[in-house]
Amino acid sequence: MRVLLTEDDRMIGHAVQTALRQDGCVVDWVRDAESADAALLSGSFDLLLLDLGLPGRDGISLLRELRARRDATPVLVITARDAVEDRIAGLDAGADDYLVKPFDLDELAARMRALLRRSAGHGTAYLEHRGVRLDPGTREVTRHGKPVSLSPREYAVLEALLLRPGVVLSRAQLEDRLYGWSESVESNAVEVYIHGLRRKLGHDMIQNVRGVGYFVPREATAPDEA
Amino acid sequence: MPGASIRGRLLMSLLPLFIAAEIATGVVSYRYVLRESHQLFDYHLQQMALSLRDQGAVMTPPVPNEEREQFDFVVQIWNADGSKVYLSQTRSRARLPDRATLGFADVVTDGERWRVFSTLARGRVIQVGQPYQVRERIAAAAAMRSLTPLLVLAPLVAIAIWWLVGRSLAPVERVASDLRRRDERRLDPVSDERLPAEIEPMVRSLNGLLGRLQQAFAAQRAFVADAAHELRTPITALKLQAGLLGRARDDAQRADALAQLHAGIDRSAHLVDQLLTLARNEPQAQTSQAANVLPSAQVDLARLARDAAAELQTIAEARGTTITVDAPQTLALRGDANALLSLVCNLLDNAIRHGAGGRRIAVSVAFADAGGIARLIVDDDGPGIAAEERERVFDRFYGRATGDDAGSGLGLAIVRAVAERHGGTVELDESPLGGLRATVDLPVLSQS
To answer: Which residue ranges in chain B fall short of pLDDT 70?
Structure first.
């Protein structure tokens, strides 16, 4: 999962980034609204963590602009302002959820997962496809009930593909899910992870559209649509 | 103990005055009418006597009986030999004395005072007399008549006073009930509409006080709100850092999380220290403790500057910055040593943090204004502060608002509060070194 963290406080930002990275997320961290805006325009993120109390331009105006240009990236707002009217203003500006400081790392992670599920149109807490079940809460993957051991990056690729069955993701889009700005991308990394996943989960689990990208084929009766 | 009511006091002082005025009016009109009637009746007596003399013959005036009853004059005529020729009939059957003084005379017969005019004509003495009582009765009646309107007016005046005072003071009662309905949060001015001019200054002063209270309260509230808000950030960081520590999976992660937690605790402690320093030096804190008086201890500003520089030298060196101090051996002034040390430290801290990339910080302490002012200057060669921003950086937490999370955002607010508490000033300017120059002027108070 690729997350854009917008937080002006060095310590909070560092702690959130560290924790989310430990959870296997790719976290890009910016410290003001302008940088966040630039990042959102240049890349795609699964989720935006937005502190409202930013220096200069505030988070609310960034959020409004984001929604005005029909960017549907899920936004989890983090703020020290806990008055009801502030929450309402935040949600009305386009936030999907709201977390008041001080918050707990586990709660943050749980809310992020919930947001991601909702944005993908899933009602269940896990992703399931052709006997493969992925639980974002525990990061456990099972195939026909038997646990499968995946590396964090294999997990990230599988999660990205399972979130939108039938949708083709390009190599660049998958790389986005795997690497932050500061990390260098190995040239054939995505192919390596896809290969690993196919080996562990069955060859027909992930399909390839030559020159375009990869996808998990949509099932006639996807469990989440049943 | 409340004073007497205005209404009661007015009534109690006006009514005796009114009564005294009535008595004076009565007395004056009585005496005036009495004097007038003296002249008038004397003239009548004289005319009557003279007319009787000129008639020559003795005649009985044809006076009807019923009128005679009201006839107050007594006429008496006698011959030179003393035989009575005529005596008018009167209801009182009074007799005038037989001995006559010519002209006007006051006579007492049978216990009654008479006014008598006697004249001599052809051997006969003609005396016309009238009891004084008649004149006094007329005067008294006139006096009573002049008193009547006043007597009728007196209760009306009393009622009018009662009503007018009540009416004029109704706005006062309104102000009072307005104030009664208030609590400590409602400090807006009381309406001075329709207030009597005498009460208005009081209400205006009250409104002035309310305004000042409101400002002080608002400042306090803003301070508490700001502080609570600002404390949230380091506490959030602490919670997250503690969370990281809890979920650390190996020693490296644990050590890293612990180091972060320590840094977070240091930052929180620093913020709390700064808040306390500011609270101790802010004007409202001073007045509330009635301790606006500075500790009048002797403070050596030169030594304070050197101490502060030594304290921050390590942090400065870690950033590649050198602090130099140019100060005399001693520079004594009276003040609060802790507060002044905090002032110098905050200026230096500010220069270290915000003089980003700067390599030099120069502190100078010297007398200015012929020894009347101790001047502390802190120069840096950093980026400085834009002129239009120089006033706002003194606001609490302004630094935080610009995304500088390194400091508490209170440093310059503390500097200003401490300087002002010492009767001094702070100014920000361009430094000859290229960065920011902070100049603090503190009055050197003579020994007192």
So the answer is: 1-3, 54-71, 89-100, 284-295, 355-358, 399-407, 445-448
> B428: part of which helix (H) or strand (E)?
strand B425-430
Superfamily of domain B294-443: Histidine kinase-like ATPase, C-terminal domain (3.30.565.10)
Domain boundaries, chain B: 7-161, 200-285, 294-443
Q: In the predicted model, what is the mean pLDDT of residues A202-214?
A: 86
- Which amino acid is residue B330, in one-letter code? T
Q: Residue B290: is it exposed, middle or buried by C-beta count within 10 angstroms (0-12/13-18/19+)?
A: exposed
Mutate: best of B226, B236, B267, partner A, most A CBs <10 A: B236
Assess contact for B69 and B91: CB atoms under 8 A: yes
% helix / strand / coil in chain B, to the nearest 5? 55, 20, 30
Q: Mind listing the pLDDT tens digit for each residue in B209-251?
A: 888 888 888 878 888 887 887 788 889 999 999 999 998 888 9
Q: Which of B299, B313, B346, B269 is nearest to B443 (CA)?
A: B299
Shared fold status for B200-285 and B294-443: no
Check CB contact under 8 Å for A11 and B244. Answer: no
CA angle B64, B70, B76 (to 5 degrees): 80
Longest CA–CA span in chain A (Å) reads 52
Residues B172-194: tens digit of each pLDDT: 888 888 888 888 777 888 887 77
Closest-CA residue to A177 (of A141, A147, A213)? A213
- Of A120-124, A133-137, A202-206, B138-142, give the lowest mean pLDDT range: A120-124
Pairing label, strands B112-121, B124-131: antiparallel
User: Distance (Å, rounded) from C-alpha A157 to C-alpha A141?
Assistant: 13
Taking residue A22's Cβ as centre, other Cβ atoms within 10 Å add up to 16
Q: Does B243 touch chain A (CB under 8 A)?
A: yes
Nearest CB partner across the interface for A12, out of B236, B253, B257: B236
Q: Chain A contact for B262, CB < 8 A?
A: no
What residue in A sits closest to B243 (Cα-Cα)?
A105
Which among B232, B260, B400 has the least Cβ separation from residue A14?
A: B260
Residue B399 has a pLDDT of: 61
Q: Do B232 and A9 touch (CB under 8 A)?
A: no
Would you state the pLDDT for residue A84?
Answer: 82
Interface predicted TM-score (ipTM) of this complex, two decimals = 0.71
Distance CA A179, CA A43 (A): 12
pLDDT score, position B403: 47
- Tens digits of residue pLDDT in A55-88: 778 888 999 999 888 888 899 998 887 778 888 8
Comparing alpha-carbon positions, the chain A residue that sits nearest to B268 is A11
Tokens of B362: 């120069």
In whole angstroms, give the CA distance from residue A63 to residue A52. 9
B392 in A contact zone (CB under 8 Å) = no
- Using alpha carbons, select from A135, A133, A138, A139 the residue that is nearest to residue A201: A133
DSSP per residue over B84-143, as a string? EEEE---TT-----SS--SEEEEEEETTEEEEEEEEEETTEEEEEEEEHHHHHHHHHHHH
The dotted CATH code for B200-285 is 1.10.287
- Alpha carbon A8 to its chain centroid, in Å, reads 21
Helix, strand, coil percentages, rounded to 5, for chain A: 40, 20, 40
Q: What is the pTM of this model?
A: 0.61
Q: Which chain B residue has the Cα nearest residue A54?
A: B403
pLDDT for res B291: 46
